[in-house]
Design a protein that fits this description.
alpha+beta; Alpha-Beta Plaits; single chain; four-stranded antiparallel beta sheet
Length: 96
Amino acid sequence: MVSVKRLVVDVLTPHDPPLAEFTADLADVGSLEGVTGSLIELDAEVQNVKLTVAGPGVGVEEIESEIETLGGTVHSVDQVACGDRVVEDRPTPQDR
């Protein structure tokens, strides 16, 4: 089975815990090398966040479970990178 190296998810989170704490708590899961949390939209009660998770073997179900434990809800999985290395997206004519 090929391991997941990078996972990008769109998440709805409460304001508490704050984004920095939410991201740091998620970074403690499994064998992750890092997590980046980016605020996309802020509402009076919730915030929409893009989370990028990277590591040698990202456990997708484990990440989704921890997001829910922290009070978040996964809206969508927006990117998954698998294999021996992460292949970066490059613009193609279809993107224009």
